[in-house]
Amino acid sequence: MKLNGNYSKLFENYLFAEVSDRAAKYQSAHPDKKILRLGIGDVTLPLADEVIKAMHLAVDEMSKKESFRGYGPYEGYGFLRESIKNYYKTFGVELNLNDIFVSDGAKSDLGNILDIFSNDNTVLVPDPVYPVYADTNIMAGRKIIFTNANEENGFLPMPEKVVKADIIYICSPNNPTGAAYSKEQLKEWVNYANSQGSIILYDAAYECFVKDDSLARSIFEVEGAKSCAIEFCSFSKIAGFTGTRCGYTVIPEELEKGGISLNKMWLRRQSTKFNGVPYIVQKGAEAVFSERGMAQIQQNLDYYRQNAKIIAECLDGLKIRYTGGKNSPYIWLKCPMGMGSWEFFDYLLNGAQVVGTPGEGFGENGKGFFRLTAFGSREVTQEAVLRIKNLLNNSN
Ligand code: MLT
Fold it and tell me: Is 386 in the pocket of ligand 1 (CB under 6 A)?
């Protein structure tokens, strides 16, 4: 018996587990203090009424012999895939029903998709970025090269012809920096991938925060993307499904490498290892895209956008540089007074009992940066901002 030795190359804890451990340790040492959490990007508003109604109806259906459902289709129910297809139409993307696979979330699919790729591929990962991309490839023992996202390039690295990569990760709007690619910039990535025969794994989990028309909601808005890209999206951020679990992956039917369909490979993978998302959850997800569902969800998104504005105004007042918060729920700030990311984490936790996420946890280039989320409640966001202001104003 041999264990997977690649696990020894990982940091001991997953980033958000580490953040939560440190906050828990602080809390047990200071039981009287109230910690305010703006670390993990977890939503705080309840599911929209339309979603809840649809789920209640689905529960009732499950109670009757005539409407009870057992195993569902591996790729998701047609009703949900149809509504996802129609959602994509709203930003000008035409998909086939067969391009869409429903799953229990983008994070799972981003890790699981690696099953269809050989371990000797080289992967290109932006630094900093959502730690799942690098961690899942480290687990598989793949060679990783990093592309620098930094202040100089506005945290939006562009392809460099000299770099050869088989699998390219792009996250836009970006977690953690909040930077988002324009369609023109994505076109450069698509051209680069097509010219090298590489695949882009495009994480669109935060597309619903895009307001600016020049920015892409989907990589499939770009011509040529269907021959080189797979897109991952989620109901977590758009509709508060972080605990309910539902997402989807788009693999165009025409996406082939060496005459082999990646879409068919993924269906083979999913039908072997996955038995689908509960019917009740898929009915809830379908309601997200109904007219009333969308209207309710837009109100929730606006609430989070307002939180982002509150945080941004606080940072403006403190003259702290930041990106994000406009087409993204994340605010990525430069740690004040030259502090390191974990140093600032401890400083905020000890001095203001506010938890954020150290930039360093997202990669080397995140050193000296810090991420705050706009997904907190209004009360927590306002209180956190007040405490941060007091702490920093008193230390100047
Ligand atoms: C984050 O805080 O980066 C996200 O919540 C993580 C995730 O979506 O898995």
Answer: no
For ligand 1, whether the C-beta of 237 sits within 6 Å is no
Is the link from the previous residue into 128 a cis peptide, with omega within 30 of 0? yes
Query: Is the minimum distance from the CB of 41 to ligand 1 under 6 angstroms?
Result: yes
| Cβ of 37 below 6 Å from ligand 1 | no
Say if CB 188 and CB 182 are below 8 A apart. no
Question: 153 with 187: CB under 8 angstroms?
Answer: no
pLDDT, one tens digit per residue, over 336-374 is 999 999 999 999 999 999 999 999 999 999 999 999 999
Sorting pLDDT into bands at 50, 70 and 90, what band is 396?
A: low
**Ligand 1 atom, smallest distance to 237 CA:** 8
**Of 165, 167, 127, 161, the residue nearest 147 (C-alpha):** 127
Ligand 1, atom nearest to 42 Cα: 5
CA–chain centroid gap for 359, Å, is 16
Query: What's the one-letter identity of residue 59?
Result: V
CA 218 to chain centre: 13
46: preceding bond cis by omega (within 30 degrees)? no
